[in-house]
Every structure is written in C-alpha cells, then in structure tokens.
Amino acid sequence: MFAFPRQILAAGVAAACLAGGAAHAADIKFGFAAPLTGPQAHYGEDMQNGLTLAIEEANKQGIKVGGSAARFVLVSRDDQADPRVGVQVAQQLVDEDVNGILGHFNSGTTIPASRVYHDAGLPQIAMATSPEYTKQGYDNTFRMMTSDTQQGAAVGKFMVENLKAKKIALIDDRTAYGQGLADEVEKAVKAAGGTIARREYTTDKATDFNAILTNIKGAAPDAIFYGGLDAQSGPMKRQLVALGIKAPLVSGEMTRSDTFLKLAGDAADGTYASLAGVPLEQMSAGKEFAQRYEARFKKAPGVYAPYAYDGAWTMIDAIQKAGSADPAKYLPALARIERKGATSEHIAYDKNGDLKEISVTIYQVRDGKWQMVQTMVSQANQ
C-alpha cells in the first residue's frame, strides 16, 4: 500500500495566492488513522482516498479561515486495526497538534482511541458503526455512516419479512463491529417474530469454519447471518456451499466488497449484504463524486470513500462556519451542521453525534456481481 505507519500526507498543494498577496493561515491539520497495512488495508486506503480528494478540493478553492487562506493537511497513521496500536497512534496524532480527527475505521480501534481524543478536546468524525462509539456521552464524537443499531434493525427485519426466514443462525468474529452488529440483528429478528436457531463465534483471523458450519447445519436454519470481515465471509461462503448448506448467507457492509467476490469465487452467488447508505448512483452527488475520484485515483471508489469524503467536508464546513480551526470554537458548529454532501442532501447530527438520516441498502450477489435489492431511508427518532 502507498501509506505507511508514520507517514504525513500533505493532501494537495496550497491554493494559489489570492489577489493582494494575502498571507496563508497556519496549516489546518486533520488526523487520520485506519488499517493501512495488513488484510484490512483496502478499507483504509479507500477511506484515505476519499479524505484526500476532499482536502485537495478544499485547498484548490482557497478557503479562508479567520481572514487568511487556509491550507488543509492530512496527517495519516496506520492503526493496523489493532486497539492497542490505535490508542498509540491516537496519542501520536494529539502530539502532532492536529485540529480534528477523521477516523478511525474499525469500531474496535475507534472506541478506545476516542477516549484519547475526548481528553484532548478534539472533534472526531469516524467511520465506526458500533453503537457504543456514540453512547459514551462524549460531545466530540460524530459518524460518517449509519450506526449498527440502525443497520442491524433493517437486516433482521429483511431476513424475517423478505426472505421469510423464521429460524436464523448467527456467527460473529468477536470484534466490536462484528459482535455489535450481530447483537442488533438478533434483537431485530426476535422483534420481527423470528427465532435464533444457533449462535456461533469465530475470530477475525480464522479461515476454517467447517466445525461451526457443521453445528449450524444440524440446526437447519432458514438463513445465516455473519458479523465480520470479507477476509472471513469469503472462505466461509465457500465452505458453506461445500457442506451442502442451502440457507443463504447474509452479512454487513464489510462483506459487500470485491474482495469477498474474489475470496468466495463461484460460491459467492446468492449472498446478501447490507450497506449503510444508498447506492453510489443514487447518492445526492454520487455520479459526480465517482467521476472526480476515478480521475484522481484511476480506479472506481469503494464503499467507504464517499462517506470519508463527506466526513472531511463536514469538518471543513464547520471550521468555515466558526471562522476558526480551534477545536473548542468549531465543535459547536459541527454539532449543529446541516449540509448537502455526496452521500446525502441532509447531513446533520442528533444529540449523540449519530446521523439523523437513516439509510440502509440490501445487496445480493448475482452472476458474480453485487446487485441492489432494496433501499430503506428514514429519519432517526429525535
């Protein structure tokens, strides 16, 4: 990957000097941390690219903060999707005197790292979807995507009502993300009138699932839900098919990837995955975003790039509205933000820092490609 653990990425050059030779303000630095090496590096790279595009665009616009042209800079760290490393790089970013945090990616690293940022008074907009992230009572935590509470409710209802699955087996990888999503799905299944036939556990490093799948086969479920990463759901689907299990595999947004398709191979067809948000082509400015992204990075954006892009612009807009990059001064503006973005025309937060607009899309693999099945958009209860 092109990013390294202690790399400082200056995203874009400063805007051209304004008429009259106005001085530039000091750099406004955004801290970013995600897995940039290892099996989850494709997630981190996708997120970093979205942030980079937003920051480069902002620098070209010559945005003024406090009367001077601002130069936004992205300070990147590799947290390796490891909670311990996540806390270490969080402290590194604080020591770099960054003005805000755009990250982390995983819930398991975001939650412990968020305590470091809270103590430092730094606003944080994270990709993490675990409900626990914004349930800590912090006033500085915000999301880029719909939470797992909202996503899990939609998935559980979909399995019972749309797939007519009354008996559902659950598997999770014991990470904050995987376990948290499976917990929410379990609640929703029961609320919709379904039952949990069996619940099994694995890890985010496992590759052999034959034992737990054999146990699940004996319970004869109508559907199987997996909370975890594509590195596990891909081989899991292959093994599920090899064991002759007919129940469809359903998973979350980390499975809705090209990596899953490659790992599952011919066995991928029939798999369902939920994704917070709407399809890129249905996003408020998704088509335009995709065009700019492909021109910059020479490839199509992944799942997380547009949400990261909006997260960066949301923080930039809050700084503009406050007229200051001082975290204490622009944090209130961030909490009150209402703006149009690439992913939604209604980006705004509730009192906890969760997005007010709830959107979840269900996809299915058909002929080796992810195809949209159903999109649900609603407003969170305030």
Automatic annotation (TrEMBL):
Signal peptide stretch: 1-25
Keywords, ordered alphabetically: Amino-acid transport, Signal, Transport
Entry-linked InterPro entries: Leu-bd, Leu_Ile_Val-bd, Peripla_BP_I
Cited Pfam families: Peripla_BP_6 (PF13458)
GO BP: amino acid transport
Leucine-binding protein domain span: 28-368
Family statement drawn from the similarity comment of this UniProt entry: Belongs to the leucine-binding protein family.
Name this protein carries in UniProt: Amino acid ABC transporter
Organism this protein belongs to: Bordetella ansorpii
Lineage start: Bacteria, Pseudomonadati, Pseudomonadota, Betaproteobacteria, Burkholderiales
